[in-house]
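# nightly structure sweep
# worker-07 picked up a monomer target from the shared queue
# config: single-sequence mode, recycle default, output format = structure tokens
# input follows
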Amino acid sequence: MDYRLLANDLSPRANARLRVAGASVAILCALAIATLAYGLYRTGELDARHWQIFADAATWKFLAIGLWNTVRVALADLVFSVVLGAIVATAQTSRLGVFRLAGSAYAELFRAIPTLLMILFCFFGLPLLGLDVTPFWAVVAGSGLYNSAVLSNIFKSGIRTIDRGQSEAGYSLGLSRKDVMTGIVWPQALRRMRPSIVAQCVVLFKDSSLGFVIGYEEVLRRSQEIGTFTSSSLQPYFVGGCIYIVVIYLLRQSTGQSGQRVEETSA
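# output follows
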């Protein structure tokens, strides 16, 4: 489904207001960028000597390794969060009250605790319990606990949007609850949950930057190291931020196009 078709229901006056609002926002953004650029120019932050290090291929190779570390931890976090989130969502929608209580308690608990606090606990607290945890797994576990709690609520909401009549029809045909969930409910729910899942994947990817505080060599950490080497912090952080913007944009574009193909195929 192309959701842009919903805009066709607006009146001509509403469309005109939207165009004026869009133009106003664009002008304000342009003015803000121009003001920022002028301020950087006056303070000399745009001088070539501050950016010279980025003309060296070794700098980009250094950042590329950090980007790979970021992608690696984000993929591991995604698998961990999706699998655990699906298990918790299944528990929350179970017929047994004890499972529903345990799933809800997990979701509420880990959704309330800050992600950074959980990463610090995994890195500094688990070794006190006899578990040796590397920075990589500390980020995956700490961030995964939070994101799995959020994804479990997304999954639960998606499951509940499916009409109960479809499940009852499956049961009337003699299907087990497992067959109904895997063959009828989950495929439809995943299509409806796709925008929310993509948005949470973006959050998950950005959460990988929290590994910075425990020395994990991702993009942000390596940007800081470049700034320490060059005695300049603004330029490396700016380049690191641009890397995040590009990767997240490509992520949203790829998932959006794949989701659109799925919807067209199912239609």
